Amino acid sequence: MGREQWKKILVGSAGNMVEWFDWFVYASFATYFAGAFFPDGNPTAQLMNTAGIFAVGFFMRPVGGWLLGRVGDRKGRKAALTLTVTLMSASAVLIAIAPTYAVAGYGGAVVLLVARLLQGLSVGGEYAASATYLTEASDPSRRGFASSFQYVSMTAGQIVGLGLQIVLQRTMSDGALHSWGWRIPFIVGALGAAVIFYLRRNMLETDVYEESADDAGADQKGTIKALWAHRREAFLVMALTMGGTVAYYTYTTYLTKYLSNSAGLSKETATLVSFCALIVFACIQPLAGRLSDRIGRRPLLITFAVGSTFLTVPIMTMLKHAGSFWPALGLALLALVVVTGYTSINACVKAELFPTGIRALGVALPYAIANALFGGTAEYVALWFKDAGAESGFYWYVAGCAAVSLIVYLTMRETRDIDLNRVAVPAPGAAQRPAEAV
Q1: pTM of the full structure
Q2: Domain-embedded: residue 422
Q3: Count of domains forming the chain
Q4: Each residue of 384-433: pLDDT tens digit?
Q5: What is the 3-state secondary structure (H, E, C) of the chain?
Q6: Lowest mean pLDDT among 217-231, 247-261, 284-298
Q7: CATH code at 406?
Q8: What is the mean pLDDT of residues 317-332?
Q9: Residue 189's domain spans which residues?
Q10: Does residue 59 fall inside a structural domain?
């Protein structure tokens, strides 16, 4: 990989990191600000309210996927990436200044909701824009390696957020964190987004996109009509996302709450477990991505699905009774190693299914729909099972989602050797895409 390719990947990843820092900070600091926007009462009920607003952000992701995916296909990947970080910066500012329940009643919750809607729009387009950009910017023989940096940067954003949380936990009193300290990470996120906005304005467009600029049918780029011609691949993206997104959000955003709210660990210990596990998780993404460049995408996806289907219940059960830092860390690492089979390569697998003129929208919309249905609701479903006194039901839910995706992985074709410049477009009225990209 040449210098220019590395530059594109690093700039794209840096922006992705800030996007996901803002996105995940909401989840990781929810235990501190949940009581600020809702009346005093059951802590689990307060968390369910904030988790519900978290899920609402996911339901805006299909809208963001459609809007920003269209921008990415018609105006370029750079334009879409610049717009996403602008929306994310605005949402971070809103959360940072949102009034509490004591000051404005439910008005603060409304501001929080608006901010999450903006975040949903932003992240709905960010995933596809960055997945497409990283895949197209890389050498064809290293697409798995290059695209793995999407989850490196996503995880790095969460690591920075958790690291900041650890610092604040050790330098501020618990009362101060619940009172106003939780606003600090959102201020940091807004400042970081401003820096990335500058960087993205000067980033380079991908050669693959520029080479397609004069292709016939430019008026169909990024349209629902064009996506409908690739509906088989769109449904494939939804199905292969289902198990991976539920498992990912279970062992990342929900893990800290689960360890403190169910396993009985202190908030500080739970945060440290997540922080250490995510550092290892981020480091192994490029290794798994490079492995997929050698042996293919399907072996890693199948390994993830088999492991998640059969290990989720025992891992979650043992995590609940871990009791201390080291057992909890070991189990969290085992779970995240399994999830790596999906996270390290899912970006390039999806991008490899579509031609250039519909690639951003083709990845964005079906992925966002799957995340709205399964990823965004994972934490809420987990808390619902807990509130109903049947927490183990959530373990089986995660395993079941992975089992569905396993069927898809076993039946889909390999995408590693597909030429992004030659993914065929169906003739008008064609029902299906050619088999080479399925």
Answers
A1: 0.85
A2: yes
A3: 1
A4: 999 899 999 999 999 999 999 999 999 999 999 998 887 655 544 444 44
A5: CCHHHHHHHHHHHHHHHHHHHHHHHHHHCHHHHHHHHCCCCCHHHHHHHHHHHHHHHHHCHHHHHHHHHHHHHHCCHHHHHHHHHHHHHHHHHHHHHCCCHHHHCCHHHHHHHHHHHHHHHHHHHHHHHHHHHHHHCCCHHHHHHHHCHHHHHHHHHHHHHHHHHHHHHHHCCHHHHHHCHHHHHHHHHHHHHHHHHHHHHCCCCCHHHHHCCCCCCHHHCCCHHHHHCCHHHHHHHHHHHHHHHHHHHHHCCCHHHHHHHCCCCCHHHHHHHHHHHHHHHHHHHHHHHHHHHHHCCHHHHHHHHHHHHHHHHHHHHHHHCCCCHHHHHHHHHHHHHHHHHHHCCHHHHHHCCCCHHHHHHHHHHHHHHHHHHHHHHHHHHHHHHHHCCCCHHHHHHHHHHHHHHHHHHHHCCCCCCCCHHHCCCCCCCCCCCCHHHC
A6: 217-231
A7: 1.20.1250.20
A8: 95
A9: 3-208+221-437
A10: yes
